[in-house]
Specification:
By secondary structure, the protein is of the alpha+beta class. The strands form five sheets. Strands 2, 4, 8, 17, 19, 20, 22 and 23 form an eight-stranded mixed beta sheet that branches. Strands 9, 10, 11, 12, 13, 14, 15 and 16 form an eight-stranded mixed beta sheet that branches. Helix 9 packs parallel to helix 10 (about 355-365) and helix 14 packs across helix 21. The longest helix is centred in the last third of the chain and has 20 residues, at about 680-700. It has 21 helices and 28 strands. The protein has three domains: about 1-115 and about 395-515, Sandwich (Immunoglobulin-like), CATH 2.60.40.1670; about 125-365, Rossmann fold; about 575-760, Severin.
Length: about 750
């Protein structure tokens, strides 16, 4: 894995295949798709930022890079993608072998350009959209979290506030001794109605033609700053409005749900931003405490006797509101993408609030998502603080990104799975097979941060190579990823990453393919792909699909004699891969049983935006064991790791579990750690807590911390993730160990079946 991590530290790219199958047939035979997981804004301390515009190929618009062939005498460079010859402009006249511009240095395959002329004049915008249909206690938690957030927002950032329940209220924060509120019914409203009703044309008449968007199109700055004001100017007004925020005052009958018009509030927020600050880095931050029951985007009726849709209802197509709500949010996502704005979602309730329906709008705009049980929970409070942090762990929020891909002509792009929206830029590089956001070579990323990672799926279209010229001809494929975005300083930047990968074909290429296989990246690509297929294809069976894929892969790359399972072995490059698939089959992206549609949507949204290292932890959690006999050491993710005198720390990304063996728990309950002679025991108890805190500090969303004891009710958080090598019908466990009550097969049985099928 180490060398693949080095590739990542240079270019922020991980690929399942780092030596590529060179022809269409060979690629099909490799089963795992040709793909890459790329983190466009991964921080590189030593990367130069060039203060000038990039040099582009006249023909294919790719950017000058270290793989370009340069003729210093005639001042010409040849583009590696389309082989077009380009002349250097006059200001490059002094280049030579000893005097290279930074973008031609071999080590700068990733580089940034900053155009000094382009800087956005509009500071970042945060529009808080707040649900008020909650019990007083929840509203109290939310008010204190919001007033803390308002204090952390950058001083120049513009802030606005919309609250909603039965009606939607837009709060005027500027100019008034008397705060004004504009109230809308919980129905769909048009942008024109919003502008009309909110007196945008009180002082000057409405323009008769053209779109109305922002200052340059006829809106006065004065009318905009009634609703969006710099944080430093409106902090007092905003805090006093929050202070007086009450539970929605409309009575709710005992057998009814509250009337909550989430869709109308979000639609209004989008219209307001579209009119006031189009094309600038603005975020709608929605704080929702229950299901929408009124107007567009409703997910359930007001009658409590009708339950909220479950996975079973979605499978049987008996969720009457679902498709209509998804359609509404698809429309909203198109509007937000067009305006360049982001929707962030904070869903905090014991029941579902509609994350499954909202997913499309959050994901396509690159929004952040946090799911918790209450606005008082640390998962919500600490995650909200984390967004506005400005230390080493800040998220590095950027906006208004456009991501483009260029590659050699023998490769086509099937699409991207991740937080972005297609810009429908069709061309010869688009494959007919579409996955995720496809049919394009450019994507809009309204919001992106240091961790945002895209999964690109490619198609090799090269037909067989004629004999004789195969390997000696140019056997490199080239890829270039261009990310044009607005840095949080307001400056527009372009990051260019150019990579080259060798391709192989024909007999004898198997060893090369094996040597370039990255099993972690492969597991993550498959996790994103299987989640996507589960949502997009009605009759898709994920377990069967994964099993067939693994069997094919093992019979293609394993060493064995036909029909002899005991002779089967896998190269170290592939040896952990079956284990990843075993855990992927059991994890929350594939097994929806026991999770609500909202939780499943949440898990998949996070999987679709995280890098390889974090995604691997979601698929196969890490387990660390602490004992008196040795320092902290990694333990197998197996029920055999449990012992009475050990503490285990499980990191499954969304949850972190500190699990005390039964003896440790007894000693702790007896208070031994408070006695000076048991200093060592006190340290043993403290070490896993410190390690857990370190993980929590740098992760977003903040994970849930569970501290539990062996045989306690919360121990299920650990047991659910372990390989059930000892179950209720196997031999008794080692003393002090544990068993798992399950009928799931263990990894040993799984591997046994795999070997039998692979050698057939």
């Amino acid at each position: 894995m180490a060398e693949f991590m080095d590739l990542e530290t240079q270019d922020a790219v991980r690929m399942p295949w780092n030596v590529l199958p060179g022809t269409k047939a060979e690629a099909a035979n490799c089963v795992v798709p040709i793909a890459s997981i790329y983190t466009p804004l991964k921080p590189f301390p030593s990367m130069p930022i060039l203060p000038y515009s990039p040099l582009r190929c006249r023909n294919c618009r790719s950017v000058l890079n270290p793989f370009s062939i340069v003729d210093f005498v005639s001042k010409i460079w040849i583009c590696p993608f389309c082989l077009n010859r380009n002349h250097f402009p006059p200001h490059y006249h002094s280049i030579s072998d000893d005097n290279l511009p930074a973008e031609l240095f071999p080590q700068y395959t990733t580089i940034e350009y900053e155009s000094p002329s382009e800087k956005s004049t509009v500071p970042p915008v945060f529009l808080f959209v707040v649900d008020t249909c909650m019990i007083e206690e929840e509203i109290g938690f939310l008010k204190s979290a919001l007033s803390q957030a308002v204090g952390l927002v950058p001083e120049n950032a513009l802030v606005g506030l919309i609250t909603f329940g039965t009606f939607v209220s837009v709060h005027e924060l500027g100019y008034g001794q008397i705060p004004k509120v504009y109230v809308f019914r919980g129905k769909e409203v048009t942008k024109d109605q919003v502008l009309e009703q909110m007196n945008f044309f009180m002082k000057k008449p409405k323009p008769t033609t053209g779109v109305i968007a922002g200052v340059r199109d006829g809106l006065s700055q004065e009318s905009i700053s009634r609703f969006l004001l710099p944080a430093s100017e409106c902090e007092f007004t905003l805090n006093s409005v929050l202070e007086e925020l009450q539970k929605d005052s409309w009575p709710v009958a005992a057998d009814q749900r509250a009337t909550r018009c989430t869709g109308a509030a979000l639609s209004l927020a989008a219209h307001l931003l579209g009119a006031c600050v189009p094309g600038s880095g603005a975020r709608i931050m929605a704080f929702i405490g229950g299901p929408s029951t009124e107007g567009p985007g409703a997910i359930v009726s007001k009658k409590l006797s009708e339950p909220i849709r479950s996975h079973k209802d979605l499978d049987k197509d008996s969720a009457p509101y679902y498709h209509k709500a998804v359609k509404f949010y698809e429309g909203l996502s198109k509007q937000l993408v067009h305006q360049g704005h982001v929707l962030d979602l904070f869903a905090c309730a014991l029941d579902q609030v509609g994350v499954a329906e909202l997913k499309v709008a959050v994901e396509r705009t690159g929004g952040l998502v946090v799911l918790a049980e209450s606005f008082g929970h640390s998962v919500f409070k600490d995650s909200l603080k984390h967004i506005f942090q400005s230390d080493d762990h800040d998220l590095g929020l950027s906006s208004n990104g456009i991501f483009e891909v260029n590659c050699s002509k023998d490769i086509k792009i099937q699409g991207v799975i991740g937080p972005c929206a297609s810009l429908e830029k069709k061309g010869p590089l688009c494959s007919e097979n579409v996955v995720g956001q496809g049919n394009t070579t450019a994507w809009k990323m309204c919001g992106l941060d240091k961790a945002t990672s895209l999964c690109l799926i490619f198609d090799i279209v090269k037909k067989e190579t004629p004999e004789g010229i195969g390997q000696s001809a140019n056997n490199q494929f080239y890829f270039q990823f261009l990310t044009y975005y607005q840095h949080n300083s307001g400056q527009m930047r372009l990051r260019a990453t150019t990579l080259s990968r060798r391709w192989v074909a024909g007999p004898g290429s198997t060893q090369d393919l094996i040597a370039g296989f990255d099993q972690e990246a492969a597991a993550v690509v498959l996790a994103r792909l299987v989640s996507f297929k589960m949502e997009a294809e009605a009759e898709f069976d994920p377990i069967r699909w994964l099993d067939k894929l693994l069997i094919h892969l093992c019979s293609r790359f394993g060493d064995y004699q036909k029909d002899s399972p005991s002779s089967f072995s896998l190269s170290p490059r592939f040896s952990i891969f079956p284990q990843f698939i075993f855990h992927l089959r059991r994890c929350q992206f594939v097994q929806v049983f026991n999770n609500s549609p909202d939780e499943t949507a949440y898990f998949r949204m996070i999987l679709n935006r995280e890098n390889v290292a974090n995604s691997v932890v979601m698929i196969q959690p890490s387990l660390i064991s602490y004992s008196f006999h040795s320092g902290p050491e990694p333990a197998l993710l197996d029920v055999a790791a449990i012992a009475a005198d050990r503490i285990l720390l499980l990191d499954s990304y969304f949850t972190i579990v500190v699990f005390h063996g039964s003896t440790v728990a007894q000693w702790r309950n007896a208070g031994y750690h408070n006695q000076p002679e048991h200093e060592v025991f006190a340290q043993l108890l403290k070490a896993p807590r410190d390690d857990a805190d370190a993980i929590i500090k740098e992760r977003f969303p903040v994970p849930r911390l569970v501290i539990c004891d062996q045989h306690g009710s919360q121990a299920r958080f650990l047991l659910a993730k372990l390989n059930p090598s000892a179950t209720y019908n196997s031999a008794s466990p080692a003393s002090g160990g544990d068993i798992i009550f399950t009928d799931d097969v263990s990894f040993e049985v799984f591997l046994d079946h795999l070997q039998r099928l692979a050698v057939q």
